[in-house]
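User: Structure please.
Assistant: Input sequence and predicted structure:
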Amino acid sequence: MPLTTVSSNIFSYLADKGVDRVFLVPGGGNMFLIDAVGTEPRIEFIPTHHEQAAVIAAEYYSRKTGKLGVALVTTGPGSTNAVTGIAGAWFDSVPLLVLAGQVKVADYNVDGKLRQRGPQEIDLVTIVKKITKMAKTCFSANDVPRDLKTAVDLAQSARSGPVVLEIPLDVQSTVMDWQEPQVAQKEKVSSIVNETSSKKNLVNSCDLVAKMLSGAERPLIVVGYGVKSSQRTEELKEFITFNEIPVSLTWTTADFLSFDHSLNAGRFGVVAKRHANFILQKSDLILVLGSRLDNIQTAFNIDRFGKNADVLVVDIDPAELEKMPDRFEKYQFDLSDFIPALTSSMHKMGQVTKRRNWLNEISYLRVKFENEVFKPVAGDTGRISIYDFVNILSEGFSGNEIIVTGSSGLAVEVFYTHFKNRDGQWIGLTTGLGAMGYGLPALLGVAAAAKEKVYLYESDGSLMMNLQELQSLNTLGHPVTIFIQNNDGYASIRSTQENYFAGRFVGTGPSSQLEIPSFEKIAESFGFEYMSIKNLRNIKNNVAKAIGHRGLLICEVFLNRDEKLMPKCSVIRTENNQLLSAPLEDMSPLLELKELEAIMGGQTDPMSIRIRKT
């Protein structure tokens, strides 16, 4: 390879590995890297107006394409601005490389005794050490080839996640003979031995799981994001269809099956349709694939999750398995290996077990609770119920759309509870961090990857936190429609302040000094067309118009200001201020105890009795 700069070699290497987009903000601290990415013909650079947005856009580009996401930021504030995006990718296990500039090696505060030595210097590596798979400052040009290869491999292997490399200015500009590191023969032999041993263990484990699945009367598979990140979605669909095994979905896998598919048992959790939680708690065998079963999914009581079932958990991360209750069976495997092996094991079992009674029961519960109403009957005038809008939006789509959402807030929670997804839709969400401000940069990342139009469903308060990226979207020029849910600020936090603090509102809406500007004027400023939906009159036609728009459109939807999130597993406050969490199957508005008992086959959780006496 001819002598070229470290910076040029970095992007040549990344292009060789399939990287074709880099999201960036230029600065003095990354100037050689910026020039290098701009001159690499196989990579398109996409500037953003904030480093947080660059990292989030890279994350969502990875989510949509399955490729490594790459963001390029400068040192100092450029690096600290990137931290939120790095954290989001860490919690949701998204492969991401963040390249950060740094001051010259001679100016670096190596021993840390000074607060700062070089201009805009900050130690990003130490800041992100706990939220990355690898974080390192490359002080020598000779270290960069191996460090880059290691970082790229780590980001995309095992439980994927973000990696960070800081490249000092003088290292960026160093001219060198770049040699890609080779794997030592000893490492290759060790890898082959370990692979042979693991394969035998995998086959034995899958044979056992297959036997348990075949023998179960009410089996259920929980499809976590690990299925998507392992790129085994289609294989698992074929598996559950052939074997007629229903699935429970998480918010990040809401698009795994259409809402009306006979094997779709719903999206479970603290906020969910009742039938989804009932089905989980009535199952006799639950196979969890790539889901960490966090508190929001288990109603803060993982010990009672699947309380009538044998629970089998497959995860690549031993730490996630270690936290599971002792009664769970735990298997540490990569789902990219496990799902094909389980398919083979099930084929060896021969005849598919028919479970018509179980599927009929699931169908009965879905029909009974799918269309529960949690709002008063509305007229054609006045602001719109979020429940009405989500249902009408669901009906307005025909299938195969690309939909991005914000990551938190009442409107987003209602969306993932009540949206009726259709065949072929791709829905993107980040869950672990739950930060406001994700919507617009996420839309940018997906739009950069998509040939088709992309839709964003986002709340007004969250949109404000990265508003500047409307210009990045305009510059990109890809057709998008942004549905802004206007409920006058932070409806979810207003509800918390009303329920727990006697309605003492602070910074959650116009009455407490949080004001939202005119989105119509904002749309005009950023070169978007604008339309609004203020009531139910002609709403279906207006939604269809927004969906069918061919350019850049902001569609503002004026929602009721303070609707309640339903159904949900409530936290009940007792007279002595003790907080009681309702069981997963007992959602508010509470059903009559007799009906709950009948659905659960005569079982009643003691907590269900207790919360009704409070």
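The first helix runs from residue 6 to 16.
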